[in-house]
């Protein structure tokens, strides 16, 4: 979801900066947060602020509160994401969203609603619904089961190594989206079946009856 269908970078950074300011922490540069924010926020705090160890839990809790109440509203659909999903639906393609958000799992539905994506998708699979999230295969396996489609006719789209590893472990074909949080060089070592520079490129792949 994050980095593939929605651009959540600004929402994460906004929530992190506001939480840190409330605790009097102003020396961490925005650019540093932008580079690190793809990692879980609790791990970022432990790495950047070891001297605030007694406040770690409170800072993380405040970050989650800020994100869930206001930060998530800064999340926007990726370029042409809505158009692509609508075209797939018109072709009777079933769509699942698989997200491994943990700290911010409760905001998944509000984010999708805010981005006008929720009504288009058939299934949403979150981390708490399986024994272990991506890169384990459980989330993708559950998505395929709930969609009621054969895995041989299912393709996963993701922008992270965890997306690719999890989908391949579940026996799915994978399209790596290279304009998300990770570069093509970071993704190609995991050998996805396809690379996407732009989301509309998935239409040709999905609607191709030969695979």
Automatic annotation (TrEMBL):
One of its GO terms (biological process) is DNA repair. It comes from the Archaea. GO terms for molecular function: phosphoglycolate phosphatase activity. It holds the Pfam family HAD_2. Belongs to the HAD-like hydrolase superfamily. This is HAD family hydrolase. It comes from Candidatus Marsarchaeota G1 archaeon OSP_D.
């Amino acid at each position: 979801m994050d980095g593939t269908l929605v651009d959540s970078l600004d929402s994460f950074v906004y929530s992190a900066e506001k939480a840190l300011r409330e605790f009097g922490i102003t020396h961490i540069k925005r650019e540093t947060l932008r580079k690190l924010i793809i990692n879980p926020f609790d791990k970022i705090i432990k790495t950047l602020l070891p001297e605030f160890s007694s406040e770690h839990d409170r800072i993380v809790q405040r970050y989650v509160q800020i994100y869930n109440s206001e930060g998530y509203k800064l999340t926007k659909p990726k370029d042409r994401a809505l158009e692509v999903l609508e075209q797939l639906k018109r072709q009777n393609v079933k769509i699942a969203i698989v997200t491994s958000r943990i700290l911010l799992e409760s905001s998944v539905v509000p984010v999708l609603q805010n981005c006008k994506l929720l009504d288009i998708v058939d299934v949403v699979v979150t981390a708490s619904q399986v024994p272990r999230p991506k890169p384990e295969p459980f989330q993708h396996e559950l998505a395929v089961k709930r969609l009621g489609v054969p895995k041989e006719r299912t393709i996963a789209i993701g922008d992270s190594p965890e997306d690719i590893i999890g989908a391949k472990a579940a026996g799915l074909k994978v399209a790596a989206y290279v304009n998300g949080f990770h570069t093509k060089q970071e993704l190609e070592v995991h050998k996805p079946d396809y690379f996407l520079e732009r989301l509309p490129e998935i239409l040709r792949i999905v609607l191709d009856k030969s695979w």
